[in-house]
Amino acid sequence: MKKILTILAISFSALMANSVTTAAPHEKHDNNRGWDQSRHQQSNNGRDFRNQDDDDDRMQDKRRVREERGVKRLQQHKWQTGYVMPQHYRGNGYKVDYKSHDLPKPSRNQQWYKINNDYILVDTDSNNIIRIQGF
């Protein structure tokens, strides 16, 4: 029993010594800075994360401007029969009931949409514009 306890104590000591040595930092220490920042910056491919908030703000501004430009372009879109209706307008928010807007009854697999004060009849299978009725 004494031998087993001795073996366990030695094994535990060796395990603790090993974990202490692996937990030590592997960075070069510099007397002025505490650790070598140049080596740390190289591992991050030269990226500086100090101004990341400014970069995020600039990216959000660019994204907002791009979205506004896209919305303006879609509002100025000229609808023509035979064209495919853009994906942006295929949602339920643009669908209208033909009865409440005095529109002709659509055939099977057709749907009326109201976009920019125009009523557009679209084939729901191919998303092709069949008819445009402006008011």
Describe, in plain words, how this protein is organized in 3D.
The protein is of the alpha+beta class and 135 residues long. Helix content is 39%, strand content 13%. It contains 3 helices and 3 strands; from the N terminus they run αααβββ. The protein has helices spanning 2-22, 37-43, 52-75, and strands at 110-115, 118-123, 129-134. It has a 3-stranded antiparallel β-sheet, with no helix packed on it. Strand 1 (110-115) and strand 2 form a beta hairpin. It is elongated and about 100 Å long. The protein starts with a helix and ends with a strand.
List keywords for this structure.
single chain, alpha+beta, 3-stranded antiparallel sheet, 135 residues
Gist?
The chain has 135 residues and is of the alpha+beta class. The chain is built from three helices and three strands, in the order H-H-H-E-E-E. The mean pLDDT is 78.
Number of strands: 3
The residue fraction in helices comes out at 25-40%
In spatial order, strands of the major sheet run 1-2-3
Gross morphology is: elongated
For the termini, the CA-CA separation is 98 Å
What is the percentage of strand-forming residues? 5-15%
Order of helices and strands: HHHEEE
Q: What is the arithmetic mean of pLDDT?
A: 78
Q: Report the uncertain regions.
A: none
Query: Please, how many helices?
Result: 3
The structure class reads: alpha+beta
Largest sheet, if any?
Answer: 3 strands, antiparallel
Rg, rounded, reads 34 Å
